[in-house]
Task: inverse folding
């Protein structure tokens, strides 16, 4: 499926302008590498606030362009080198196959230092990135603003797919002015969090009433901008307000603003363009830039290693700023299901059975 293939290659990256073939012609074995580092350490991410983020490398193997899911690569040796002669070893996460973490809480990319990512597979194949460094442009977060909108969208009504106006807001972020002849390349992504309440929990004496929910698929998009001078508001995302249970109790999203290299920007631009042109049965993207090479095998390598300048903050939705009230109809919907034969919904009684994300009764460590 094109959507799954697209996610498999949404890789943070930067660097030199070589191409990879996604094994389209020769169908050789290939390695997919997803990796980045930034000037934001694990300890600094705790202050966003968040649960913290260690730098992670994800490895997958693919044999041809039609693969839907890559085989996770275990037992590799993954390490980072800098041009000052230091080496930083990643630790394999045995609970998450194919993932390797740099478990150093204070490590972050430093200005004017170059970094190279290296991967050695247990069969002996060696892969290395080009040398990358933090972009020099200063990264500043502007002010947030919202705009009430009601765009036309597809919705389901009585089982039918129809087009109608959907009430919501757009979240916008001010991009500060900058002086200089060189453009600045921005990339934004988002990490949403919301609360969900099981409205009928009391009827079955359930203690799993309130959950915190995360999702890798909601607001899973990237915003790119090649900026010449700044001084404008950048639209980040649309948030539906009516008929969206995510905003009934609490909704927030970490907004990550990255300043990236031109090569990384061009990769993402090409990736998004291929995705938008394609159809349901299209192949995965190919012909994109990579800054990885293999030195001792005929394996292909897909992906980028990125060193980015990052600023992050948590934006929290405030329903009181709207010109209208948001109706919470969850209990009404649960009662309707409860009165229909075979219509009972587990998530109405147990919040961790919620089906729109990963729900847990454990509150975030930073929650007051």
Result:
């Amino acid at each position: 499926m094109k959507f799954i293939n697209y996610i498999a290659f949404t890789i943070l990256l930067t660097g030199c302008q070589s191409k990879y073939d996604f094994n389209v012609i020769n169908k050789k074995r290939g390695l997919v590498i997803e990796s980045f580092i930034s000037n934001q350490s694990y300890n600094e991410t705790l202050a966003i606030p968040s649960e913290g983020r260690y730098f992670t490398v994800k490895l997958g193997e693919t044999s041809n362009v039609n693969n839907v899911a890559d085989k996770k690569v275990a037992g590799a040796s993954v390490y980072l080198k800098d041009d000052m002669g230091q080496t930083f070893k990643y630790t394999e996460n045995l609970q998450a196959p194919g993932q390797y973490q740099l478990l150093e809480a204070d490590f972050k990319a430093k200005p004017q230092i170059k970094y190279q990512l290296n991967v050695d597979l247990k069969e002996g194949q060696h892969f290395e990135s080009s040398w990358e460094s933090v972009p020099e442009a200063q990264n500043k977060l502007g002010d947030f603003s919202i705009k009430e909108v009601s765009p036309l969208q597809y919705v389901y009504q009585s089982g039918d797919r129809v087009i109608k106006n959907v009430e919501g807001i757009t979240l916008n972020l001010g991009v500060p002015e900058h002086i200089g002849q060189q453009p600045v390349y921005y990339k934004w992504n988002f990490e949403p969090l919301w609360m969900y309440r099981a409205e009928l929990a009391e009827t079955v004496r359930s203690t799993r009433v309130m959950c915190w929910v995360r999702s890798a698929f909601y607001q899973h998009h990237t915003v790119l901008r090649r900026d010449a001078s700044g001084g404008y508001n950048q639209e980040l995302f649309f948030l539906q307000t009516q008929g969206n249970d995510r905003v009934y109790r609490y909704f927030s999203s970490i907004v990550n603003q990255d300043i990236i290299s031109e090569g990384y920007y061009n990769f993402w631009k090409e990736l998004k363009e291929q995705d938008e042109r394609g159809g349901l049965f299209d192949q995965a993207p190919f012909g994109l830039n990579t800054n990885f090479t293999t030195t001792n095998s005929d394996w292909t390598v897909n992906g980028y290693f990125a060193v980015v300048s990052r600023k992050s903050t948590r934006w929290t939705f405030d329903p009181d700023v709207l010109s209208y009230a948001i109706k919470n109809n969850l209990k009404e919907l649960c009662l309707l299901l409860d009165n229909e034969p075979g219509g009972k919904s587990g998530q109405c009684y147990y919040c961790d059975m919620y089906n729109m994300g990963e729900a847990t009764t454990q509150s975030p460590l930073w929650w007051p």
